[in-house]
Amino acid sequence: MTPTQATAARRSKISPERAQELYAAVLDELREHGYEALTMEGVAARACCGKSTLYRQWRTKPQLVAAALRAHRRGTLAAVDTGTLAGDLREAARIAAGTSGRDTRLTQALGLAVLSDEELQAALREALVEPELAAFGAMVQRAADRGEIAAGHPALEFLPAQLMGVLRIRPVLEGRYADAAYMERFVDASVLPALGLAPAP
């Protein structure tokens, strides 16, 4: 049994509704106190549960935080398939924009821990980053199969960094979150021209 399967098996012992309550408690603690000050004890107290429940289901703080962040997301890039790469990228941008305000605040709350805590990095990559990278890979592969773009196009390497990065940096540069209109303009003006593609209709 893989670590992911083992985690899913443990999680099945509580109801989905209760899991959402626990995730909400995690995110509230994260927003209020940041990652470093977040504790399993604090989450248990806020969620009115035993600390052993959290350890039994998720084992460690990084795994619990990663699971809460994943459950918090709305929409999935894996479901995107418009028939063209331009359309897929614009739809991916809209999905990303739908969570930019909420997720950006939470990402900022993780602070330096994301860079210094290897266990947290690994948990976030498994729960959040790798599924998105796989979705981008599937979009590109479909486009290559349709003949829209060469599989080795040099700009493809930077797609995830472009779309994920602009979500994080706009609040820093302009004091505003990257909403759907902004993300669509970014794709049309920057991403698609770099790929040699026309904007989606």
TrEMBL record:
Where does the source fall among the domains of life?
Answer: Bacteria
What PROSITE patterns does the entry give?
HTH_TETR_2
Keyword annotations of the record: DNA-binding, Transcription, Transcription regulation
Q: Name one GO molecular function term.
A: DNA-binding transcription factor activity
Domain HTH tetR-type, by residue range, is: 16-76
Q: Could you tell me which residues form the DNA-binding region?
A: 39-58
The cross-references to InterPro entries, in alphabetical order and at most eight, read:
Homeodomain-like_sf (IPR009057), HTH-type_TetR-like_transc_reg (IPR050109), HTH_TetR (IPR001647), Tet_transcr_reg_TetR-rel_C_sf (IPR036271), TetR_C (IPR011075)
Give the signal peptide range: none
Q: Which Pfam families match?
A: TetR_C_11 (PF16859), TetR_N (PF00440)
Q: Per its UniProt record, what PANTHER family does this chain match?
A: HTH-TYPE TRANSCRIPTIONAL REGULATOR RUTR (PTHR30055), TETR-FAMILY TRANSCRIPTIONAL REGULATOR (PTHR30055:SF149)
Protein name (Swiss-Prot/TrEMBL): TetR family transcriptional regulator
Task: Write down the species.
Answer: Streptomyces globosus
